[in-house]
Predict the 3D structure of the following.
Amino acid sequence: MLQWSIRLSLITSVKCARFHLTRSYLSLLANYFILVLASSCILLSDLPLVAVFSCLYLLMTVTVKSGFLASALSGEVTFLSAQEYQLGHSLITIKQVIFALSPVVLLVIHDDNSRTLLWRDSLSEKQYRELIVMLKREH
């Protein structure tokens, strides 16, 4: 009876997971929401008109170049274990994974304290669940 329920389980245990991560729609929405919020604060402030235009220009250049949030994982990514993953030809060590916003995004902190985001809509639901199970097992 127990084996039957394990076979029908939606979440399986994986040791190595390879994904092709696409561009996240939620990432774009979050960055644009922060852009609108920040520009609204600048426009509604008591700053002089010259300062408002220069702040809006700086805000737009930051948004176009890198966005407000940490960079998102994309492309071919292979999670070898819960402590490391391979992006392209480089092997990256994971220090910690923050699951607080796991319904939307995972925050991956590397050994050098740099951060990347893994958005839920950049891969399929099944792959996302498998990845969370693999990462939670050891973090």
